[in-house]
Amino acid sequence: MRKVDPRGTIALIIVVILAVLVGIAIVIQKEKEQGKPLQVKPRQAHSPKALLPVSRQALPELLIKGCLFDLGIARQDVHFLGRTIKVSMPMSPSSGRISEAFGPIEKIGRVQIENSRHARITIDDKSWDIFFSGETEKPARCAIIVDDMGPTMEAAEALAGIDADLTFSVLPGTRYTQKVARFLHRRGKEVLLHLPMQGNGKDPGPGAILQGMEPSRISEILKQDMESVPYIAGVSNHMGSVITADPEAMRLIIGDLKNKGLFFVDSLTTSKSVCAAVAQELEVPFIARDVFLDNEQNSPYITSQMEKLVEVSLKYSNAVGICHPHQETIAVLQREIPRMKRLGIEIVKVSVLINSPAGAERGRR
């Protein structure tokens, strides 16, 4: 009996495999030339991101369900009635949150957010209307105040280029105090006097109010500081843990602000602050800081503090964050503010919060 040469068998197998591969390649090329999509089975997954590579062949309902699940909506709360989808929930998500959740579909179709109760999804010329039941979410708004403005123009120019209604607190007596205030005002930004006050032992800088000063001297310094920063809508404290805890000094300062029609923002550099109580007593518009964004100068920390600001904004509808014109902070603001907007958080001038019905109460929480 003749022996079979194993090398010949291996060679035959290789030839067969190559022939099969060539045949597949020819079929693929012909389908491409004819404009026919490859018949690939959709992956069975709820995540819209996982479905995107095969989304043109996947059921659109799976994509829509995946996006709804990303909103935290339970399976049993989604009801399909043909191409009308009813979502049962106690509170409708904001338009921004809906837009972010359905973002992956933009790669293969169109997403129209009519309002927080109605979205329309179009894929391959077919449309699905999604209706959310429940009350509309309260508006989520926050103010971001940038303190310590004035020493340079570069920071003012970079921050003014961010597409958001940031508020700027300008120090008196610095090289570019007036130039920065005028520049920001021309750009439509809200300007505050960042009033230097005695604090934890560090030098608060020129124009500072110190403990033990005569009332007339405090009023004189405050007047000079207010005149040095043009276009101010209000005042915030720079440092000041000693002065903001002094009822007599704060009564004098806030009383002078009342006469000028200005509001006060408490940076809350001490838990012993009496500013809220004095402002309420004198009926002066007031709000307090919620989150310091950049006590540590590194991107992960600042980003985490921005997350806290987002949480407070969504929970209470009003929030105040304070930061400083550091390069790391500017970079995080440039990156995170667009994301905050996509979440439905509106960044407003601090005066908008103060003048809102819940503003003063929010500041005293």
Account of the protein in words:
- By secondary structure, the protein is α/β, with parallel strands linked by helices.
- The protein folds into two domains: 48-136, Beta Polymerase, domain 2, CATH 3.30.460; 140-363, Glycoside hydrolase/deacetylase (TIM Barrel, Alpha-Beta Barrel).
- It is built from 13 helices and 16 strands.
- The protein has helices spanning 6-33, 48-51, 60-70, 95-101, 154-160, 177-186, 215-228, 247-260, 275-282, 299-316, 327-342, 350-354, 359-363, and strands at residues 78-81, 84-87, 91-92, 109-115, 118-123, 126-132, 135-136, 140-149, 167-170, 190-197, 232-239, 263-266, 286-288, 291-292, 320-323, 345-347.
- The strands form three sheets. Strands 8, 9, 10, 11, 12, 13, 14, 15 and 16 form a nine-stranded parallel beta sheet that branches. A five-stranded mixed beta sheet has the order 1-2-6-5-4, covered by helices on one side. Strands 3-7 form a two-stranded parallel ribbon.
- It is elongated and about 75 Å long.
- Residues 35-57 have low confidence and may be disordered.
The count of β-strands is 16
Q: If you average the pLDDT, what whole number results?
A: 84
Number of helices: 13
Order of helices and strands: HHHEEEHEEEEEHEHEHEHEHEEHEHEHH
User: From the structure provided, what is the oligomeric state, counting identical versus distinct chains?
Assistant: single chain
Largest sheet: 9 strands, parallel
CATH structural class of the largest domain: Alpha Beta
Number of domains: 2
At the fourth CATH level, what is the homologous superfamily of the largest domain?
Glycoside hydrolase/deacetylase
Give the low-confidence spans: 35-57
Q: What is the CATH T-level topology of the largest domain?
A: TIM Barrel
Helix content: 40-55%
